[in-house]
Amino acid sequence: MKRIMLTVAYDGTSYCGWQVQRNGNTIEGELNRVLSELLGEDIRVTGGSRTDSGVHALGNVAVFDTEAKMPAEKFSYALNQRLPEDIRIQESRQVPPDFHPRRCFSKKTYEYRIYNAEFPMPVKRLYAYFTYVPLDERRMREAAAFLIGEHDFKSFCSAGTAAESTVRTIYDLQVCREGEEIVIRVTGNGFLYNMVRIIAGTLIEAGRGNLEPAEVKTILEKKDRACAGPTAPANGLTLCQYQIL
User: Fold this and answer.
1) CA dihedral 89, 90, 91, 97 (to 10 degrees)
2) What is the pLDDT of residues 21-70, one digit of tens each?
3) DSSP states of the chain as a string?
4) Phi-psi region of 179 (alpha: psi -120 to 50; beta: other; left: phi over 0)
5) Which residues are catalytic?
6) Backbone dihedral angles phi then psi of residue 138, each to the nearest 5 degrees
């Protein structure tokens, strides 16, 4: 028996998120199906990040165990011939038998993209949230600074989370404008349910002038989801990197 780690990129538009569900197609479900057919075993992958419906990834991580003799690096080629074209394996390699992607030290980097123009751009609609309301990225950047470091992010977590602790560390949080797009890029040691989308929604409120940047500090202290901004739509979010430390 050996354990294989996959680096998985996907366009999440047509999927009900990562995690297997009874009534919807998911990334995890597709990986399980194709691996089981390929290897003739009942394969169940374990993912590093359980992305939501409509969220994309350039490099999520998943592991599975197999008795197959196939060299670890060949799994990526075999899977990419069988997976739907909106899911592609970027790398496959063998890892220690006790390696678990959610129980190791790691850094995750997400990007949230906002298309901020007078009219929508059709080719951006699946990968960026559109708003015609002018956003001041300087105010957003000022608000973002209060979130860097170790904090209790209970105010930035949707109800129903199974997390034992809502304390997380954000190592870096940047807001920059690229033409008509504003990009929020956040790196942390882990993220709570909908945490990045709630951060994005709160920073958008600051950019619109509905929230003073310094109020973010108070929102953290309140530990109350009702105090933070709305949950931004899923289509603007991409998991860019899952770095094992």
Assistant:
1) -50
2) 988 999 999 999 999 999 999 999 999 999 999 999 999 999 999 999 99
3) -EEEEEEEEE-GGGSS-SS-BTTB--HHHHHHHHHHHHHTS----EES--PPTT-EEEEEEEEEEE---S-GGGHHHHHHTTS-TTEEEEEEEEE-TT--TTSS-EEEEEEEEEEESSS--GGGTTTSEEE-S---HHHHHHHHGGG-EEEE-GGGS-TT---S--EEEEEEEEEEEETTEEEEEEEES---TTHHHHHHHHHHHHHHTSS-TTHHHHHHHHT-GGGS-PPPPGGGEEEEEEEE-
4) left
5) 52
6) -70, -40
Tokens of 99: 């390696």
Q: Distance of CA 145 to CAs 7, 142, 195, 215, Å?
A: 31, 5, 16, 12
Q: Is the pTM of this model over 0.85?
A: yes
Cα–Cα dist 106/188, whole Å = 8
